[in-house]
Write a structure and sequence with these properties.
The chain has 33 residues and is mostly helical. The chain contains one helix and no strands. The N and C termini lie far apart (49 Å). The model has no long low-confidence stretch (mean pLDDT 71). This is Capsular polysaccharide transport protein YegH. It comes from Salmonella enterica I.
């Protein structure tokens, strides 16, 4: 159970990072454009 919880937390943290990175790029307009 302990290992499962740790793995789940790691997967969630990775998902959160990816989900946050996508909106940041889409939300902020490219300075070059």
């Amino acid at each position: 159970m302990g290992d499962y919880l740790l793995k789940t937390l790691q997967v969630e943290s990775h998902r959160v990072q990816k989900v946050q990175l996508i909106p940041l790029h889409n939300g902020e307009p490219d300075p070059e454009m």
